[in-house]
Amino acid sequence: MSTLKESQKDSPQHQEALIREAAAREGIEINYVYEDRDTATSIVSRKDVQRMIEDAKRGEIRSLWFASLSRFSRDALDAISLKRILVNALGIRVVSIEDGYDSAVKDDELLFGIKSVVNQNTSGDISISSRRGIEKSAAKGNFIGSIAPYGYKKVTKDGRKTLEIVPDQAEVVKLIYNLYLNGYGDKSIVRYLNGENDDGIVYPTYKGGLWNLSSVQRILQNENYTGYTVYGRHTSKIVYDDITDLMNRRRKLVMKPQEKWKRTPFQTHEAIISKEDFAKAQELRLLRGGGKRGGRRKFVNVFAKMVFCQECGTAMVMGKSISKNKEYRYLICSKRRMQGKKGCSNHLWLPYYEVRDQIMGEILDRIRSFLNSDGVDQLQAERRNNNFIEERQQIEKHIKDNRKLLFEIRRQKMLGEIDDEQYEFEKEMYENEIEEGEKKLSVIELEERKVLNVSELKKDARKALESLTDPKTYDDVERTRAFLLNIVKRIEISRDGEITIQTYL
Fold first, then answer.
1. What is the pLDDT of residue 39?
2. Which domains are assigned to the chain?
3. Residue 427 and residue 403: Cα distance in Å, rounded?
């Protein structure tokens, strides 16, 4: 004896055959089939449903037959509203075969409502299960997108869906990041790619045609170019355009905060852009107003996120005061500014422009010395790298210990040795420790590369020296920061006004 698979039972063909057979037993011939395959949130937004309602209003329908109420609607409110329109307002017979509902026999709205709620919950459970399955697949390194990002193509390797580089496109992606990190804005890049460059080259898009702003911005924000799979970036919410008509709604995709995105801990495909360059690009996007904060932000402080208070370790921030219609800008410890003396003992208000020129002068002197030497002593670089290795080993051990502790509390939870509250508390604590450790490792990796990659460092230093010699250029904050991010590691200011500059040189 053979049985139908669930997918076969759920097919439109099977549903139609079931309906025609049931109607035929009553001598009723089905004259028209409404097939709803739309994914719109609201049932009244679906084309075939709209057509059905209009036909019903014109008196062209005597009875409506469904395989089950789950096909009538998977939303309980929609189902009852639609039932009342068809059955109660228009007097149409509605039959659900699998649910045993027939409005001509008994219009049991309680049964109808209960069935609709069950269908809604089942649909929700299926949706959640589906999302979990997708996220599990992504966590294993599978590419779950429908279209590969520009620069890649979708392939299957060793049973895993992944991305493979398209060489010509990958070079364009590298070019976009290179232009951006060297001071070009989004619009300037678009013009460059469309032929407004010294060679007059028009670079190929995904589907041909010209580049536009959104295409460039998508590339500059796509972390998948680093070789890691990023997923769980979006969620959806229901939007009501008219609160007097709750059936009229739509589903809107909303991007989650970046800190809630999920990433694989390992590279799933070949990278086109390094993690360091991607991080620089995101920093610049915030600087230029294209990041998560929204709106254009005017960064006056060229050393934002580079200069710190030596006393408490928090950032020095830009302050502004106006006296006699004259603007005065200064640097101040952010903790001191927010919390006063209790926050930090560093009470200095440092005149911004004087400090800026002093720091820039010191940095440029170091660049000149670096470039005038025969090259960085490789042994010295290696000695500096040994410090990184020692620090990395300590952090890795810390991460490993926390993972062991995390495993142990899971075991205790399974054995009933700790309650839910204690488990959740410790779980969050260990997971946070692991996350912080992994962030520190990423920073160390960046610093290691900066120290050892002497040729790249020299190239960055030459560009910076050529562009920053004239103090007038310092006012071009975006461009100046683009160069400084490659040179400056950290700047600290003590409460005595002593400035300590750490560079990668």
1. 45
2. 6-132 (3.40.50.1390), 161-287 (3.90.1750.20), 307-503 (no CATH)
3. 10
